[in-house]
Design goal:
Chain lengths: 149, 626, 750
């Protein structure tokens, strides 16, 4: 696995403005940004690990703990909100017994909120892994989860 | 230049073959909205159908034509006949349509919504005469839903890159003058005259200049930029070439939010095509103009839609806005003169440079020239992406185009979290920059959210402020701390713990934040609250004094009840209640225990949509007293 | 001096002329107009976050911040309208709602101050009286100046645990205003990068990555963040509760040869803190942990010797100065000259050193003056002295075209050098580091060579080879080949190449050979060499002739270009192994390089336990307690200024020595007053030390050497002052030096 980080880094030049694209690649590859990755990026871009952490923790996209096997993203854009998005999130938190930003103990699901997936006319919208589900209701949602291992 | 001209000739020929097709063509709207509605599965079905029936037909994936409520859209064009559009297609209706229209050559009028010819055809109305589309003036959206955005030939065939070629034949100063004459204002929200920023940048000292396309589109409820990039990618890129040429930039960057993977894919694809055809790189089309475009993805920060924060993000730093002066046009990315234009602004440019400034001034009105795209969503009958002339009234948009509201209209929210909620009395307001600002709202990027009586206005204000609070970068005190206090007050009000002093406190805080905040996010954050306080004051007072939420949304102010007389005892609700608050044996009216009820709507929905009774469960709030 | 064209602006209807391009805030301050601000600080890049300094400017929308807006010709500015005043008060109210400032508006606060002082140590700060920053807090000051008398918002106490696990300073982020000064100073001024903003919005915090400790995250404990913090969020552990100092005295830190200026903070005649001076031309305020935090605990250690003592069969007996010095004089008089050994510390002032050698030569009649410098370095002493005495001034780094560091790490020392190197590297100057562990500069290096010291001579030989011939001719071991080739190319021929030699270069077993090669690079190829070493006043020792056979002024160059000018130190004159009648330690400790003796005189500040108990103990005043001068590594003559009275009966070393000479009645001149001492000392230095030209030294020949072994394992990596390891009296030093040891061991390279 450590080799992968080196492979990612070799695609970029050693300038500060490459930091976010590098972090995005690392997150895509490993699912999160770990201390080992931060150390390697620090050596490569020649900035402190603390600076890297400071930048990456600013952005909602990056997580520092391993994700679940299935990623649930509940859209909480305005259109989804007025059509009950918040209730969907609440129900998921209750059903999975985790809060937003956490992963279930068995590693099956992790739950996140997103600001807007851009499918506002079909609100409320929930994304599980790469699948986008529109016009969601509480009942439909709980059924859907069963299909994901 | 010649290579491109040759390609244009062949592209037009290819397009000819679509207009006058000899084989059946099937168009499917497969941008994000279409896919979310199930378009990909339909394509799969269509492929299977034509293979099984050995039909020589071609499937063309197009972008989003606008009316999302009609998705998925499948269009069939038989040789010699107009293209017929079928709406809300599902697996069942698909097979009916394919059998009838494709196999038997008979368009299915009942399932069709419109066709792309001129007059009524076999009982099917012209698509663009439909009430949702008729009032629209589609300039920016002219190709969306009609061409395959991934096929560059389509774009070239409809005079794509002609605008850029015209620009190259002028001096950059003349290009700026054209844009000035056209009266184009930045479509990202502020409405600043585009030519002015460009002029400052053009005249600023410095060899290296940058043009950035702001595709961060963070406003919840807005998806115009996404749609445009997915459905007509080259239009935006052509706009970048024109802008880059005008300001003297040699590098362009598209800053696009990571939550738009399809749009990013389309951009990468289109950039590759541009390079292959000499539209990017050194000495483009044989001129002195060298330009290349890179894509940078946002990482989940709404504040990065703000210019200086966006620049910070590209530089690899935290996306914190910076004070101005210095202005980005003089010292922006890496300290170089930089122009940041919105996707739509850029998407408008090819049209202006192709048809001339004079032509553009025909639309809109003095000071507010041209058209604007809006995402009309919420409680309208016909939500979707629309484009109208500036100056169109809200009434026209909501009722003529949007088909009005099912229940009773309550409010229209413009400008996203930076805008305001306007009540009924403003329906005649023309949609232009100054008019909206005069009533405390803003145009914003174009999100229009319609609310009806089922929307609690205090909840909406809290929702927007909560959003802004979470997206606040935390640098300046008024925004970081001020919005937190406002959210806390609104939270208390929605929980029934509000006090009369809260309203004044909200106004004072709003005022302080508006004046004291460092960037646009903070300065406009109080707008939803301030406008709702002005125009919906009664609802606030009801929450505070009467503990009443008339829209029955605020959980602590509502109660779920079973109407015994209407309950048939079918137990549908008992099955879905997560806390066991509803109980009761079969065929007897059920009981609802308020202490266990978490107001999740499960029982309400199942009773309404699936159970026998349909209206046995109601949600009530306290009676109005004051 | 060319006069800059000024611009005319109008502030509050008053027309003034100011320098173009300065901020409105500075322009206002220059003309006595008060604009409150919290996140701004001189020397730091402006930030514009607190929003208190807002003003109105004609032509600019809204309320721009005066700290970020530069002035322009004809600008019209208003700083104090009613609307601005209200806005400031509202913003301040919001600020205070995130800060537990319960005493700010309490009617009882004055009475409380008088009677409830002990409540402070409760450990949780909920108001001013409980806060270490009380009475010197910028937030208190601003609240008063803005005229706020109440606040309307509920206070949000974030509930962070107070961070006390790191040495030297505590952090209570419940008091943090997120003004960002600490982040800016750590990243932009110190180029260290330990502190960063984390998360965003209301969840923003400040600190290192992943909730690590500062110790693990590369913090230098330079305390720059503590000095810039406007609230009590960051507070030094020592002097935390002392309140506002009575006054401050600027002096030179004597912990190493860099010569940084520190502003000692005095309260009740005690040094409670030491702050940097950003205007100092020596160090630009970039002092290290030792100067910043290790001074008060040393000066006021409980182990300070309070009175003269003599050893009796039943233990130590306190005696008067008169009696003590009588004993000393008698013992020294009755011994033959070669039966006496004087041992001085390189950390004494010029005045102390001058009188010490005067006493040795004129009253005792011996050349037996040694110091730990000589015994520490052993065979390395000749190349070391020749490199150190001619060390280039630090500004060589700013003009460097390429930099090489050998055995140098600036985490816990030599910060002005380290930061200058980092700055040059950021500007694009190639940097190569050579160490046997991963140094703090490796992150900035273009080529970081972490190799065992046994290979250093190979590396340097290859470098010399490349510099002389343009290629690598000699065969090289494979593992080093690529690295050396890469590094060598970075040093252009005939360019301004700079070497920084750190303590590890001369402490490793191969030290002599390493230093000799550095001499080659300097003498044969014109490379500039800067030596960073802990022997504070080494140049003072050279100037004042505190070496055997080197008399005062002998080593000072007359300024002529005569290259045959050389000075000589003859170590064969001293037999430091032979037992003596009297050994007189001045600012040194009885380590094993001291021979056996009948009578041991120990003159120092701190007492310690040794096998060989001193027969006579004389308490010295330490550098904060006397006046004097030292000559720094750059050959600057810097002043030591008295900041507080000597502890109990302690006296300055020069006075003790001068009085002994007086009692011995062997020398006509005895120095018991400063004026005569200064005059004679200046006269003796002659040559270029007279101030007209910069002080410089001749080349120095060393004949013979002292026995090398000093019995100290960590001579150079363990910081000492006057022989006493700092970790012995300053607790934080133990923590950071232990960490440094781990770093060195972990990466004992290839």
């Amino acid at each position: 696995m450590p080799d992968s980080i080196d492979a990612i880094l070799s695609r970029y030049s050693r300038k500060l403005d490459e930091l976010i694209p590098i972090l995005q690649d690392v997150q895509r590859e490993f699912g999160y940004i770990g201390p080992e990755s931060v150390k390697k990026i620090s050596r490569y871009l020649r900035i402190s690990e603390n600076q890297i952490y400071g930048v990456s923790s600013f952005y909602a996209q990056f997580r520092f703990t391993a994700p679940g096997r299935n990623s649930i993203k509940v859209c909480l854009g305005t259109a989804c909100h007025v059509r009950g998005g918040a209730t969907l999130l609440e129900m998921l938190e209750r059903g999975l017994e985790i809060t937003c930003g956490q992963t279930t103990p068995d590693g099956r699901f992790d739950l996140e909120r997103v600001a807007c997936l851009g499918c506002c006319a079909l609100s409320p919208v929930v994304q599980i892994n790469k699948d986008i589900y529109s016009r969601m209701t509480v009942n439909k949602l709980m059924e859907l989860l069963k299909a994901y291992e | 230049m010649n290579k491109l001209k040759e390609k244009i000739v062949s592209a037009k020929k290819k397009w000819e073959e679509i207009e006058n097709n000899r084989e059946p063509l099937i168009f499917v709207g497969a941008a994000s909205c279409g896919r979310a509605a199930g378009a990909l599965e339909l394509i799969h079905e269509i492929d299977a159908f034509i293979t099984n029936h050995k039909i020589k037909a071609r499937v063309i994936q197009v972008g989003c034509i606008g009316p999302c409520y009609l998705e998925p859209l499948v269009d069939i064009k038989l040789p010699g006949e107009p293209r017929v559009s079928y709406n809300n297609v599902n697996a069942k209706t698909l097979s009916v349509i394919l059998k009838s229209h494709l196999l038997e050559g008979k368009p299915h009028a009942k399932l069709a919504i419109g066709h792309f010819g001129k007059d009524t055809y076999k009982d099917i109305p012209p698509f663009f005469e439909l009430p949702m589309l008729k009032p629209q003036v589609r300039i920016v959206l002219r190709n969306c839903g009609l061409i395959d955005p991934q096929d560059m030939d389509h774009y070239l065939a409809v005079d794509g890159y002609q605008g850029f070629m015209n620009a190259l034949a002028m001096t950059p100063e003349d290009v700026i003058a054209t844009v000035r004459q056209a009266g184009l204002r930045g479509r990202g929200g502020a409405g600043f005259p585009t030519y002015r920023k460009w002029t400052v940048c053009r005249n600023a000292p410095g060899e290296q200049k940058y043009l950035i396309c702001n595709a961060d589109e963070g406003d919840p409820g807005a998806f115009m930029n996404r749609s445009l990039i997915e459905s007509d990618t080259h239009a935006v890129l052509e706009g970048m070439l024109i802008a880059g040429y005008a300001i003297g930039a040699s590098k362009g960057i598209v800053y696009i939010r990571a939550e738009y993977p399809l749009a990013i894919e389309r951009l990468k694809h289109a950039l590759q095509q541009m390079r292959e055809n000499g539209l990017l790189g050194h000495n483009i089309l044989g001129s002195d103009f060298s330009f290349d475009i890179k894509i940078k993805e946002g990482a989940g920060a709404f504040v990065c839609g703000e210019e200086t924060a966006l620049i910070g993000s590209i530089e690899g730093k935290r996306g914190m806005p910076r004070s101005r002066p210095p202005f980005p046009a003089i010292a922006g990315l890496f300290g170089c003169p930089t122009i940041i234009n919105n996707v739509e602004t850029l998407g408008t440019l090819p049209n202006i440079l192709r048809n001339g400034a004079q032509w553009y001034t025909r639309y809109g009105k003095e000071g507010n020239r041209g058209t604007k795209t809006f995402s009309l969503v919420g409680k309208v009958r016909r939500p979707g992406l629309i484009e109208v002339q500036l100056g169109t009234t809200l009434k026209e948009i909501i009722f003529d185009i949007g088909g009005g509201v099912q229940k009773n209209f309550k409010a229209i929210q413009t400008g996203g979290p930076s805008g305001g909620c306007l009540s009924e009395e403003f329906l005649e307001l023309p949609v232009d920059y100054e008019s909206l600002a005069s009533v405390g709202s803003i145009m914003g990027s174009g999100g229009l959210i319609v609310m009806d009586e089922d929307t609690c206005i205090v909840d909406v204000a809290k929702y927007f402020l909560d959003f802004t609070q979470k997206e606040s970068c935390g640098k300046c005190v008024p925004c970081r701390v001020g919005t937190r206090h406002m959210v806390e007050i609104l939270d208390r009000i929605t929980h029934g713990e509000g006090v009369p002093e809260d309203l004044l406190a909200l106004r004072t805080l709003g005022d302080t934040i508006k004046k004291g905040a460092l960037c646009g996010l903070g300065q406009t954050a109080p707008n939803p609250v301030l406008t709702t306080l002005r125009y919906f004051r009664n609802e606030y007072i009801e929450h505070i004094k009467d503990h009443r939420c008339r829209a029955t949304v605020c959980k602590d102010l509502i109660e779920y009840r079973v109407i015994k007389e209407k309950c048939t005892g079918c137990q549908s609700c008992v099955r879905v209640c997560p806390t066991g608050a509803i109980s009761g044996p079969r065929s007897e009216p059920h009981n609802l225990d308020p202490s266990k009820c978490i107001k999740c709507r499960s029982c309400y929905e199942v009773c309404r949509y699936e159970a026998i009774a349909g209206d046995a469960i109601v949600i009530r709030s306290a009676e109005k007293k004051s | 001096m060319r006069k800059e064209k000024k611009v005319t602006i109008t502030i509050n209807n008053q027309q003034v002329e100011v320098k173009p391009g300065i901020t409105i805030l500075n322009a206002a301050r220059e003309h006595g107009i008060f604009i409150p601000s919290l996140c701004t600080l001189e020397n730091l890049p402006s930030y514009g976050a607190c929003r208190l300094c807002v003003v109105e400017v004609d032509g600019l929308r809204g309320f721009p911040t005066s700290c970020t807006t530069p002035v322009e010709e004809g600008m019209v500015i208003r700083t104090d309208t009613a609307e601005i005043r209200t806005l400031r008060q509202e913003v301040l109210k919001l600020l205070l709602s995130e800060h537990p400032g319960s005493c700010l508006f309490c009617g009882e606060q004055n009475e409380c101050k008088q009677f409830m002082g002990t409540i402070r140590k409760v450990g949780v700060t909920t108001g001013c009286r409980y806060c270490p920053n009380d009475a010197r807090c910028e937030l208190q000051e601003i609240t008063e100046k803005v005229g706020l008398t109440e606040t309307s918002y509920p206070v949000y106490y974030r509930g962070f645990p107070v961070e006390k696990y790191d040495p030297f300073y505590d952090r209570d982020y419940n008091l943090c205003l997120l003004c960002g000064r600490c982040v800016r100073v750590c990243n932009d001024i110190r180029l260290n990068g330990t502190l960063s903003f984390k998360q965003r919005g209301k969840l923003t915090t400040i600190g290192p990555a992943f909730d690590r400790t500062h110790l693990e995250s590369g913090c230098e404990f330079c305390g720059a963040c503590v000095s810039v913090c406007p609230t009590g969020a960051l507070s030094a552990k020592v002097g935390k509760w002392c309140g506002k100092p009575d006054n401050q005295i600027e002096t030179t830190c004597t912990y190493c040869a860099t010569g940084c200026q520190v502003m000692l903070q005095i309260k009740n005649n005690e040094v409670v803190d030491a702050l940097p001076d950003y205007h100092s031309s020596v160090d630009k305020g970039l002092i290290c942990v030792k100067g910043r935090f290790a001074i008060p605990e040393y000066i006021h250690s409980v182990r300070r010797i309070s009175t003269p003592q003599k050893l009796t069969p039943v233990g130590y007996e306190d005696i008067s100065w008169d009696d003590a010095l009588d004993i000393a004089a008698e013992r020294l008089k009755e011994a033959k000259p070669d039966e006496v050994l004087i041992v001085v510390s390189s950390q004494l002032s010029n005045e102390d050193l001058f009188v010490a050698q005067h006493c040795a030569r004129h009253s005792i009649g011996t050349e037996n003056i040694i110091s730990s410098v000589m015994s520490d370095l052993g065979e390395r002493i000749a190349p070391f002295l020749n490199l150190a005495a001619h060390s280039h001034t630090f500004d060589a780094i700013e003009s460097a075209q390429a930099i090489l560091t050998i055995g140098f790490d600036s985490t816990y020392g030599y910060s002005p050098l380290g930061i200058s190197i980092k700055k040059a590297s950021r500007k694009g100057i190639p940097l190569v580091t050579l160490n046997h562990f991963e140094s703090n500069l490796d992150l900035f290096a273009d080529c970081a060579m972490t190799v065992n010291s046994s290979s250093w001579t190979t590396v340097l030989d290859a470098l010399i080879d490349y510099v002389s011939t343009g290629t690598l001719n000699k065969p090289l071991p494979d593992r080093l080949k690529v690295e050396i080739a890469e590094a060598a190319k970075l040093f252009p021929k005939d360019a301004w190449n700079v070497i920084i030699v750190g303590p590890y270069a001369f402490s490793v077993p191969e030290g002599k050979h390493v230093l000799e090669r550095i001499l080659t690079l300097r003498n044969a190829h014109g490379w500039k060499v800067i030596v960073a070493h802990p022997y504070t006043n080494l140049n003072g020792m050279l100037a004042l002739g505190v070496f055997p056979s080197l008399k005062p002024g002998d080593a000072i160059s007359t300024g002529s270009n005569d290259t045959s000018e050389r000075a000589a130190i003859n170590l064969t004159l001293v037999d430091s192994a032979k037992p003596k009648k009297v050994v007189y330690l001045i600012g040194e400790v009885p380590d094993s390089f001291i021979p056996e003796c009948d009578f041991l005189i120990y003159q120092n500040g701190i007492a310690a336990e040794w096998e060989r108990k001193p027969d006579l103990i004389l308490p010295s005043a330490l550098f904060a307690e006397t006046d004097g001068t030292v000559i720094s590594a750059e050959r600057r003559i810097l002043h030591i200024n008295k900041a507080c009275d000597p502890y109990m009966d302690a006296k300055p070393d020069w006075w003790i020595l001068g009085t002994i000479e007086d009692k011995m009645k062997k020398s006509k001149i005895c120095y018991t007053d400063m004026a005569t001492l200064e005059k004679d000392m200046k006269k003796s230095m002659k040559g270029s030390a007279n101030g007209k030209k910069a002080l410089s030294f001749k080349d120095i020949d060393v004949i013979g050497q002292l026995t090398q072994h000093t019995g100290r394992d960590k001579r150079f990596t363990e910081s000492r002052y006057r022989g006493i390891p700092l970790r012995y009296v300053v607790s934080g030093m133990k923590v950071i030096e232990d960490r440094m040891e781990t770093v060195c061991e972990e990466r004992e390279g290839v």
